[in-house]
Amino acid sequence: MTEHIDFTKGHGTENDFVVLDDPEGRLQLDAAAVIALADRRAGIGGDGVIRAVRTRRAGIDAPQDAPEWFMDYRNADGSLAEMCGNGVRVIAAHLRRAGHVHEDSFALWTRAGVRTVEILEAPATDGAPWSVRVGMGRSRLVPEARAVVVDGHHLEAADVDMGNPHSVAFLPEDLALEDLDLTVRPPVADPAPAEGTNIELVSPRGHRHVAMRVLERGVGETRSCGTGVAAVGVAAALRAGDDSREPWTVDVPGGRLQVSWAPDGEVLLTGPAQLVADGTTLV
User: Fold this and answer.
1) Going by C-beta distance under 8 Å and a sequence separation of 6 or more, which residues neighbour residue 16?
2) Do 191 and 85 sit in the same domain of this protein?
3) Residues 26, 130: one domain?
4) With 80 as the cut, is the pLDDT of residue 160 above it?
């Protein structure tokens, strides 16, 4: 059945999403609908689609003590995804602005488990960025787990699990991050995991400062990837022998984010979220 539903278009460092406001879980969202919504020519356009739905109405298995709101995230190709760090900031801003939550700190349920969010700054005017910190959970890292092949180079890559899989490779000095044409010759993981992986290519920029580009599963290259940024921060600190837990700055084509660590070792991701348009669409 086709029905009208409210949506918000938002982005975190230009990683953009269609957010569907479905608190009571009325919407049956299938892959075809997601693909149509994410289409940049015939739809609204986005790297993914997020349904904001109450966990108890989402039609999913969740523990009794799960947070009230579930982040139902889909990649642009319609596939389910465990988590999205930029998407968490966007849905947090949406829920707060819509009045679905009233606190500046709250938790969300995701397919990767609980994620905590903290609204650090709300915008004074519509369309201005929010500042949001996300508790991304603990990382699991396997150094030199596989290779990433890019532009004829076989680069050792670390596998970092941030609730979803990432393969992080650091470029040699003679390979400029900005010069790579990832459309013509996209990087590949070798061996490729059965479930696929997100690939991050990284170059140093200074003290506790790196830049990255990312190819996301089910999407292709995006302007940013929050879980990828967290994975890169973890891998960069390990590579540098830095166990200080001081923040790392990670530049992406769409902006800048900060990776830090809570006292218990949880990875924290801090950055902007912007809600740029609201409307009603047919789904």
Assistant:
1) 9, 10, 45, 46, 47, 223
2) no
3) yes
4) yes
Asked if 219 and 79 touch (Cβ cutoff 8 Å), the reply is no
Q: How far apart are alpha carbons 147 and 203 in whole angstroms?
A: 16
Whichever domain contains 69, its CATH number is 3.10.310.10
**Residue 264 domain-assigned (yes or no):** no
Give the pLDDT confidence of 183-230 residue by residue, as tens digits.
Answer: 888 999 999 999 899 999 999 999 999 999 999 998 999 999 999 999
Nearest to 271 by CA among 220, 216, 229: 229
Same domain, 127 and 176: no
CB atoms within 10 A of CB 185: 12
Q: Residue 282's pLDDT is what?
A: 87
Marked catalytic residue, from 147, 225, 232, 267: 225
SS3 7: strand
On the question of pLDDT at 273 being above 70, the answer is yes
Q: What is the pLDDT of residue 264?
A: 95
Instruction: List the structure tokens of 156.
Output: 């050792």
Section 172-190 average pLDDT: 92
Q: Tell me if residue 225 is catalytic.
A: yes
- Asked whether the predicted pLDDT for residue 105 surpasses 70, the reply is yes
Eight-state DSSP code of residue 55: G
Q: What is the mean pLDDT of residues 85-95?
A: 98
Range of the domain at 81: 4-136+271-282
Helices 226-239 and 85-97 cross at an angle (nearest 10°) of 130
Q: β-strands 48-54, 15-21: how paired?
A: parallel
Q: Indicate whether 252 and 170 sit together in one domain.
A: yes
The predicted model gives 77-92 an average pLDDT of 96
Catalytic residue among 18, 38, 58, 84: 84
Give the SS3 label for residue 41: coil
* pLDDT value, residue 1: 54
The question of whether 230 is a catalytic residue gets the answer no
With beta carbons less than 8 A apart as the criterion, state whether 200 and 180 touch. Answer: no
In a domain? residue 202: yes
